[in-house]
Write a structure and sequence with these properties.
Layout (H helix, E strand, L loop, with lengths): L35 H14 L14 H31 L4 H20 L3 H6 L3 H8 L8 H8 L8 H14 L1 H13 L4 E3 L5 E3 L5 H5 L4 H17 L1 H21 L5 H7 L5 H12 L3 H14 L23 H11 L5 H12 L3 E2 L11 E3 L7 E3 L8 H22 L2 H4 L3 H21 L4 H37 L6 H16 L26 H20 L3 H8 L6 H8 L7 H20 L11
Helix pairs in contact: 1-2, 2-3, 3-7, 8-11, 11-12, 11-20, 14-25, 15-16, 15-17, 15-19, 17-19, 19-20, 19-22, 20-21, 20-22, 20-25, 22-25, 23-24
Length: 616
């Protein structure tokens, strides 16, 4: 069994460098390329290959045969490019301070820009074909394998520019994305958060990765000091961070306008044909159900025995006596048991991957914070973790990323390259579905009231973090983009003022908001992928409905069909076939009803009467 890397002998518990992490605890990228030299060879081969796309200029729409040849040639570019990109990005994720990794990724970005520029004639050329001719062309038997791609492409006709304009947009894509790289380098490499000493005199390094570990500590003074020290570093760079975020928003608005979308939000939703009512339903439904959230904060305050509740009081478990120290392998055991309702193939393949080397398990110096799942067609679905045995939520993070990875695994085996890519809207369903199964499994394994209270506490916090918190983020994104579209200046003060107003709404009148929390909006990486985060909230709502369906019927076939579908259909249609209608507020309402019930049950288990008058 794999074990966490040993603690260093120095007085300060430092973050290990990558070479100190056992090989068995690191992902195995040789499935992508045997070594860096093989990547370089594939890079050079693609450099020679892609200019051949010019042979199709002016000929694509002549008949089905040349269009098929052009699409297959583009695929012969895209597939190796995806593999090159996956390897390069995973290597940067290992250590964002390694100049050779950064140099490789920069060269690849340059190549991607050149490829997009060289292929920029393809979209406009197809868009110029009259509707009747295009539909006849796309319906030909020879192009059956590309029908979905062509139908989706046609939807972009009103937003496709002429060849010269498309070329200019392609050339500008990399410079316009510079703010994201600046944010990543600043937060992952340059920011230094110092050392925190706990009540026993033991010092530990504070970092992006370790911050969450401090927030679950029972020592309130330690949590408070970690919170203020962490945000002090962000405060020292707040003008730079506000500038990068504002630049990202301006880029979103520019690109939406350039492509004739009415707004940046409309542009983001158009790709996957998501009705704007889905976004507005989410925000409206959550805002209408904030009372249970306020009730939970008062439960927290009373359970912790504190006069006022702060943000650094919102993550510490309320049931301290429940042991939450789990090795990585013990976490795997529980995740595999939880997904048993999905059948033998699912559990067998997932367990082999997790106990094999799909996963990069532990934090190391320069490694990207957080967690993600990433892969390419024909490769393992790799998982980045920064697993900490004392953070109970990390087991749920593992289940979450495993859901992404198995979605990828099934989609790759049941769809062609051009149809296997599922959109984020669906990805967040698969990941949170696994978390819901894990919660159900763990609740069913105990009759201990303390353990049940602990699991309910975690489920409440997961619902709070995924539906309430991500919806607040989604509303923030919508407002700052609308401000930019209205011609207002996005300065540090205007950005943080918007965020401060939302904090007041979502945390309620009885919550103490530290001024430093205004800066939280400057440290969220997802804000550099505009209108991404709302899909966590919609995804969890859909996932809970699907999990309830599987658990109540014992039939996982519709859900497995959802995983296998990849990107073959638009996501609203895929979910409707699986049994959930996300154009209705019902799935979100149902999830928030569960939240309210869990809060009341937890209060009962803890012996707290939330309806009793608050004593002065």
């Amino acid at each position: 069994m794999s074990k966490p890397p040993p603690e260093p002998s120095a007085a300060v518990r430092r973050i290990p460098v990558r070479s100190e992490i056992p090989e068995a605890d690191r992902w195995d990228l040789t499935h992508l390329y045997p070594d860096d030299a093989a990547w370089e060879a594939a890079f050079a081969e693609l450099q020679k290959h892609y200019p051949g796309v010019e042979q199709f200029r002016g000929k694509m729409a002549e008949s089905p045969a040349p269009l098929l040849a052009a699409l297959e040639f583009e695929k012969s570019i895209d597939q190796p490019l995806e593999r090159l990109s996956t390897y390069a990005s995973l290597r940067v994720s290992e250590n964002a301070a390694d100049p050779s990794f950064l140099e490789r990724e920069a060269r690849l970005q340059n190549l991607q820009t050149d490829i997009v520029e060289r292929c920029s004639f393809m979209g406009p050329e197809l868009m110029a074909v009259p509707d009747g001719e295009f539909h006849a062309l796309a319906s030909s038997p020879e192009l059956a394998g590309w029908r979905t791609v062509l139908e989706r492409l046609r939807r972009f006709k009103p937003h496709t520019l002429n060849e010269r304009e498309e070329r200019l947009l392609a050339m500008s894509s990399q410079p316009l994305a510079g703010h994201e790289e600046t944010f990543s380098q600043l937060t992952n490499v340059d920011l230094k958060f110092g050392v925190i000493t706990d009540s026993t005199g033991t010092p530990a390094e504070l970092s992006l990765g370790s911050f969450s570990s401090f927030l679950v500590k029972p020592d309130r003074d330690l949590r408070r000091r970690a919170f203020h020290q962490f945000y002090a570093e962000f405060s020292d760079h707040k003008f730079t961070l506000a500038s990068t975020l504002a630049s990202s928003v301006r880029t979103d608005v520019f690109q939406a306008k350039a492509r004739n979308h009415p707004s940046a939000l409309a542009a983001a939703l158009h790709r996957n044909n998501i009705p704007q009512t889905v976004y507005s339903n989410l925000v409206g439904t959550v805002r209408a159900n904030l009372a249970p959230l306020y009730r939970y904060y008062q439960l927290r305050r009373r359970a912790l025995g504190i006069d006022s509740i702060h943000h650094y009081d919102t993550y510490v478990p309320l049931v301290e006596q429940v042991a939450t120290h789990l090795t990585f392998d013990e976490a795997i055991d529980r995740v595999i048991a939880a997904v048993h309702p999905l059948g033998g193939e699912y559990t067998r393949e997932l367990e082999a991957g997790l106990r094999g080397r799909w996963c990069d398990r532990y934090e190391s110096k320069g490694k990207r914070s957080g967690a993600f799942s990433s892969g390419c067609y024909g490769s393992p679905p790799y998982i980045l973790m920064n697993y900490k045995p004392d953070v109970f939520a990390d087991m749920f993070t593992l289940a979450h990323e495993a859901g992404h990875s198995m979605h990828t695994w099934y989609a790759q085996r049941n769809q062609t390259f051009q149809d296997h890519h599922y959109p984020i809207f669906l990805a967040e369903v698969a990941s949170t579905f696994n978390e819901e199964l894990l919660t159900h499994h763990l609740l069913g394994q105990t009759d201990d009231p303390s353990m049940r209270a602990h699991l309910l506490n975690r489920q409440i916090d997961d619902l709070r973090g995924t539906i309430y918190r991500q919806t607040m983020f989604a509303e923030f994104e919508k407002i700052i983009h609308e401000r930019q579209e209205a011609g207002e200046a996005l300065t540090l003060e205007t950005i943080t003022a918007v965020y401060r107003d939302l904090l007041a709404v979502y945390f309620g009148p009885d919550f103490t908001l530290d001024p430093e929390l205004d800066l939280e909006c400057l440290r969220i990486p997802h804000f550099y992928s505009a209108f991404y985060v709302y899909q966590y909230a919609t995804g969890m709502s859909a996932a809970m409905a699907l999990a309830r369906q599987v658990l109540e019927t014992g039939d996982a076939n519709r859900y497995l069909g959802f995983l296998k579908s990849g990107g073959k259909q638009f996501p609203i249609d895929t979910l409707r076939e699986a049994g959930v209608d996300m154009t209705s507020p019902a799935p979100v309402e149902s999830a928030l009803e569960l939240f309210a019930k869990c809060v009341d049950e937890l209060a009962s288990l803890l012996g707290i009467d939330l309806d009793a008058p608050r004593t002065p």
